[in-house]
Amino acid sequence: MTELKNDRYIRALLKQPVDVTPVWMMRQAGRYLPEYRELRKEAGSFMDLCTNPELACEVTLQPLRRFPLDAAILFSDILTIPDAMGLGLYFEQGEGPKFNKVIASKDDVDNLPVPDPELSLTYVMDAVRTIRKALKGSVPLIGFSGSPWTLATYMVEGGSSKAFTKIKKMMYAEPKTLHALLDKLADAVVLYLNAQIAAGAQAVMVFDTWGGVLCPRDYKLFSLQYMHKIVDGLKRTYDGKTIPVTLFTKNGGMWLEDIAKTGCDALGLDWTIDIADARKRVGDNVALQGNMDPSMLYADKARIEEEVSTILAGFGDGSGHVFNLGHGIHLDVPHENAGVFVNAVHQLSKQYHT
Amino acid sequence: MTELKNDRYIRALLKQPVDVTPVWMMRQAGRYLPEYRELRKEAGSFMDLCTNPELACEVTLQPLRRFPLDAAILFSDILTIPDAMGLGLYFEQGEGPKFNKVIASKDDVDNLPVPDPELSLTYVMDAVRTIRKALKGSVPLIGFSGSPWTLATYMVEGGSSKAFTKIKKMMYAEPKTLHALLDKLADAVVLYLNAQIAAGAQAVMVFDTWGGVLCPRDYKLFSLQYMHKIVDGLKRTYDGKTIPVTLFTKNGGMWLEDIAKTGCDALGLDWTIDIADARKRVGDNVALQGNMDPSMLYADKARIEEEVSTILAGFGDGSGHVFNLGHGIHLDVPHENAGVFVNAVHQLSKQYHT
Fold this sequence. Notes:
homodimer; 354 residues; seven-stranded parallel beta sheet; two-stranded antiparallel sheet; 16 helices; 11 strands; globular
């Protein structure tokens, strides 16, 4: 396959020298872009885009045409695996994702298939291949999955949740059932991410959106343990190239040391932790991705640049930092501000890479 | 006034020896109790209860009749102050609190009055006096307020929020307007809590429900700074008794050292931090309140007792621990389980107080 023209993102994850700090934005393909909203009008729902490889590719490329981003990320949903397991994912207007079927018992878990990605998630694999080809080696393509715990919350609750009542009931009353579910999901995620790598993903990321609702012991037992299993099961090199793995637990700032011990290459940081502290705590072992508050993109140019400057100074000299927002970009920020952000990272980071 | 028959809660906050670890539950008066649901059917809305001192007193006492709790907490809402400032608090069926008016500009802030609690929040002061009298010194009465930052989020957003779009826009674009609002709110909270103390509250707690959505720097600037101002402005002794102050920032586990430096007596902990770690970090300076996951009350008796035992062992020997949930009790837990929890704390903590 083509050599990467811009490999800053990969190099920073592997702590190899770079000229400037690479930057991308979680949810960079999305509703804050007028061209995305336009395409949605014509093409239909969010899942209509995800399941059509050409449209998924088009949407993936949109932000790269506007901004000098250092990575592309597959346009998809974290809930494709439970959908492929037969739960029936759907989205209602103005609400979060929902499932037709929920997991409530050990029998439900036992009856779940572990999907073969090339058979049951063909549309994702085709999207990866299509995007990789369309990128022509300009920047690396990131593949991703939800973490087993995060997927399980949606599968047991039947959708989004505030108090996570059902899954916590299961965790306390039937921990073996939940462990069986998480173990099966970890197997499915390993297959899924390895298939994405084989299809062309040059790095992968696991999103643990809801690990932060657990107490430290339960986070380790019910979320981190299964992300560790994923890290152990992934192809870490493919086609002669290292495939870096980033783990991101939202509100996981207190557990960085534990997450770093999984052997992943990088940690995603939300904005509730100071990146200087994070580097002190785990920066010898892993690269760091993050961590500007996505709400900062509501501010003016000067304020955004000031914040980028502060975070760059917090990380300090040398490689090992992939700049990003601390969570997905908000749908109502002015898209120009995303450009201000991306340019500021490149301009202001030069001094840290001499 | 009458001497307290059970002063364990106060003693533990002041790190004085106790026979067993005191326990109460955030939101202990509420919908998980059948007698509360019954009263609501007759009496009307949540605010109808809050604004009627006799009903607020009855509801405050309900959990104490069922369980050997070591403290009562005023039945009220955190949003009484913005309501008294004229914003018009209301609740819609199945939704969170809302305001008729929102704060959007410096003029809006300048026009806000700082309410005199005995004039504009008479119903709260009357409730405190009524409850204190009804308690007959059995256990102490806790008064409370929302933190300035948390109150401001509702006042600027107009209600509950997920992304805190409006207040973060204000924070980044017009920080002086937000500081003016927070400063005024801090003044109002000082007056409000001091009035509660004068009316009979024997301890006070400040709830910072939303401080955890800020980055560390902004947490210190926009939330903690104003809680510090409150701590400095409170009557710390009244009628010859020390009035302990507890500060609680949900998802504030990374900032315990900073919170402890305000000079408060105790920190409330949510369940995402290990209480043993918290004690190591700040336990020489402050008492700790917490921190069982409220969802544990969905589990069976043995599991609840096991968790109580783990947390007690985590804190270890000696005084300085007020047992509580890490957040409010869920409305759908079996009320019997609250009894299991309270009894377990008393029974299992004896060994740590010899």
